[in-house]
Amino acid sequence: xxxxxxxxxxxxxxxSPGAAAEFVPVTESPFLMGRGRESGNHLTLEDRRISxxxxxxxxxxxxxRIEDRGHRQGIFVNGKRVERAILNDGDLIEFGLExxxxxxxxxxxxxxxxxxxxxxxGTMSNASSTLGSSGLSKLNLLLEATGLLHSALPLDAVLxxxxxxxxxITRADxxxxxxxxxxxxxxxRLARGSKGSDLEAASINPSQTALRQAVQxxxxxxxxxxxxxxxxxxxxxxxxxxGLRAVVAIPLYAVAHASTEExxxxxxxxxxxxxxxxxxxxxxxxxxxxxxxxxxGGQAASILDNARLVERERERQRMEQELxxxxxxxxxxxxxxxxxFPHLEVAGIQYPCQEVGGDYFxxxxxxxxxxxxLIADVSGKGLGAALLTTMxxxxxxxxTLGVEPAKVLGHINRFLCEHAVVGRYATLFFAFVxxxxxxxxxxxxxxxxxxxxxxxxxxxxxxGSFPVGLVDEAEFTSMHAQLEPGDTLVLFTDxxxxxxxxxxxxxxxERLQQAAVGGGLKPISExxxxxxxxxxxxxxxxxxxxxxTLLTVRYRKPVTK
Length: 561
Known about the structure:
This protein has helices spanning about 110-120, 125-130, 130-145, 155-170, 210-215, 230-235, 235-240, 260-270, 285-335, 380-395, 405-420, 495, 510-515, 525-540, and strands at about 10-15, 20-25, 30-35, 45, 55-60, 65-70, 75, 80, 85, 90-95, 100-105, 175-180, 185-195, 220-225, 245-255, 270-280, 345-350, 360-365, 370-380, 425-435, 440-445, 450-455, 455-460, 480, 490, 550-555. By secondary structure, the chain is α+β, with helices and mostly antiparallel strands. It folds into three domains: about 5-105, Tumour Suppressor Smad4 (Sandwich); about 110-315, 2-Layer Sandwich (Beta-Lactamase); about 335-555, 4-Layer Sandwich (Phosphatase 2c, domain 1). It has a six-stranded antiparallel sheet. Strands 4-3-5-6-9 form a five-stranded mixed sheet, with no helix packed on it. A hairpin with a 5-residue loop joins strand 12 (about 175-180) and strand 13. Helix 3 runs parallel beside helix 9 (about 285-335) and helix 4 runs antiparallel to helix 9 (about 285-335). The longest helix is centred in the middle third of the chain and has 47 residues, at about 285-335.
């Protein structure tokens, strides 16, 4: 894999519907984008209408190019559909869908942020005439604070640095960051002294009057000298007790990235918190300081907003890593490299629609003459279903100890019903076949396997039954059938027959039968592939709504020596 040239200067500004922007550096080439992590995507787009292999950004010798990698609705750059196109700074990438992701390509996001800040500072009245050497040092501090917007530091470290810069710029005695609690009241998040030390939040008593005025007016409250301030501020109890002579209170509001005017208003009205600075020195905040502080206030809101987004992204990544571990464990518990038994050929596969799934299959010897196989489908999806699946696997493994299968299922059923708070049940098909082709099976509410005999296809059974964990009084009985050499059983979960296409049509039982036609005369690996290919072709471009699991079993008469 090639490394992009100047990758540190290339960032994607990714905006999902109704959410704030996140900034994703392009660190690989090709840089893959699409739905789901399992396709190796570097940028995961959580929109079921977007293809798993959607698009890629490829580093060229002196530029970057975007390529359509099979997205059904097409890739659009600045409103024009492209197969491949050179990307320029500021280009907008879209996916031909309403209310979906919008991605802006930035060749150097940090540079543009600093240039924007310089432009803002350049428009300040009298700024050029008052900067001097002290002003330049403060400008440097401000630009450093702007750099925090794209920092990879932990959230608290970013916020401490932001407050330290504000203290240095204003020569305040202390700086405080406040955040709203569940009731909306501003509470101290962190407090810093002028020498870069942490102050005890419990000992801090900022001027509530100044903070209240700043929030009500949606504008900074900056007072150089309390002796000249309004009566409501200079007579405030906290100001008098602490001997404060100068106060700054800056309300911080979220930056709007949402697509609709209504959602923009909601975001803009969200109070993130406030920066508060005070001093016992009169005239502590000069005119220049006010101008720079106004700019810093706007950047502080962006820093806080972006830092929170980074924190949430890290938490999301941590959860994804844990789910990936769970997925690996679950996949590791499935039979690996299914071997052939003296009288059986077997093939099985599972595709969870999320990181972990609620389907399960297994094949194991019961004795020298009997081999057991089963398939199960736990209600629901995701982590809860996966936990119950693992429990089922452990409980059903007890059948290898010679326990009667019907008794095992009855015990599992009672256990789940007694723990109804779990709110889960499972359909299950369990069977074992001996060397003579005798098939004993138990159906627990699961769809009947297909029985392929020569060029015919039929159901193994038609009668219904209860899933395990649904009805306390349910009883499970064993049924018997006789297999002939070459007979093939196709076991499946409802993720196969209930797979949906883009028009929300079901794949259905008839299409499954059609895909299996002639499969009794093919190798079982080809039969399995034919069914999976038929499902994939039917659902092309649609989001998987359930786990897809297949287990194919073919009886063959053992070779006698």
